[in-house]
Amino acid sequence: MKILISADMEGATGVTWPADVLPGTSQWERCRHMFTSDVNAAIAGFFDGGADDVLVNEAHWTMRNLLLEQLDERAQMLTGRHKSLSMVEGVQHGDVDGIAFVGYHTGAGTEGVLAHTYLANSITGVWVDGTPASEGYLNSLVVAEYGVPVVLVTGDDRTCEDAKGYAPGARGIAVKDYVSRYAAVCRPPARTAADIRAAAREAAALARRHEPIRRGPFTVEVEFDAEHLVGAATCVPGVERSGTRRVSYESANMYEGIRCFKAVTTLVSSHVEEQYG
């Protein structure tokens, strides 16, 4: 049994505000330890449940946040940016039986601690065929095309609720309860580690590859907080203006859909100025 862990940071234990996840800050250095603790707890739980191999894919910002020197020695870690499938890189090789979304968060324009979709700001909403799409939802559509089930989701309580929509059978563990975008009631890492490990042990039983799910074509719509960002996004072939601050595009499958979304967000981020957005 091989498990892939997609590890994001905004949904990690103790994380509540931007400095907690911005590389180079003292708060980020502190929170890296709790982030690594969450991931280690998931690794331990999956091995408790019978996993033979666990690969951790770093999925936050620079994708160089987890502390390799503290990682459970039974696992391996894929770290660094510019990966074909970004947050779920590794799922495409046909040897993954289940995936865990650890440290995830809710999508742009919704309630949740540090809620966003790919970009910290600029994007105010993403929809796939009319359904609001968090990073978890987008990634679940990608991994389904490779026959890999989402078996575990950790983050704040709103993230666990969101996961019920795209992975109703997955185990969900809330490490904190949403109060505002920058505040939460947090459980200490000793407690969250125990909860995550227990849930991962149970989730291992759900790790069974299934037939790839082909649901395309998909219509993806993205809304921005400023009109000029539409001009940037429509530089990507196939992306068209669908409103004053919205663009849309069609993709035959979600492999193509997520790659187009990456191109859109990369271009948009380069068109944002520090003060005025």
Q: How would you describe this protein?
A:
This protein has 277 residues and is an alpha/beta fold. Helix content is 29%, strand content 24%. It contains 6 helices and 12 strands. It has helices at residues 26-48, 135-144, 157-166, 189-203, 228-233, 254-269, and strands at residues 2-7, 53-58, 76-78, 98-102, 123-128, 131-132, 150-156, 171-180, 183-186, 218-224, 240-243, 246-251. The chain has a 7-stranded mixed beta sheet with strand order 3-2-1-4-7-8-9, with helices on both faces. A hairpin with a 2-residue loop joins strand 8 (171-180) and strand 9 (183-186). Helix 2 packs parallel to helix 3. It is globular and about 50 Å long. The protein starts with a strand and ends in an 8-residue tail after the last helix.
Low-confidence stretches: none
Sketch the topology as an H/E string, one letter per element: EHEEEEEHEHEEHEHEEH
What shape does the CA trace take?
Answer: globular
Task: Determine Rg (CA atoms, Å).
Answer: 18 Å
Helix-and-strand structural type: alpha/beta
End-to-end separation in angstroms reads 45 Å
Major pleated sheet = 7 strands, mixed
Fraction in beta strands: 15-25%
- Oligomeric state of the chains in view: single chain
Layout of helices and strands:
Layout (H helix, E strand, L loop, with lengths): L1 E6 L18 H23 L4 E6 L17 E3 L19 E5 L20 E6 L2 E2 L2 H10 L5 E7 H10 L4 E10 L2 E4 L2 H15 L14 E7 L3 H6 L6 E4 L2 E6 L2 H16 L8
Parallel strand pairs: 1-2, 1-4, 2-3, 4-7, 7-8
Antiparallel strand pairs: 5-6, 5-10, 8-9, 10-12, 11-12
Helix pairs in contact: 1-4, 2-3
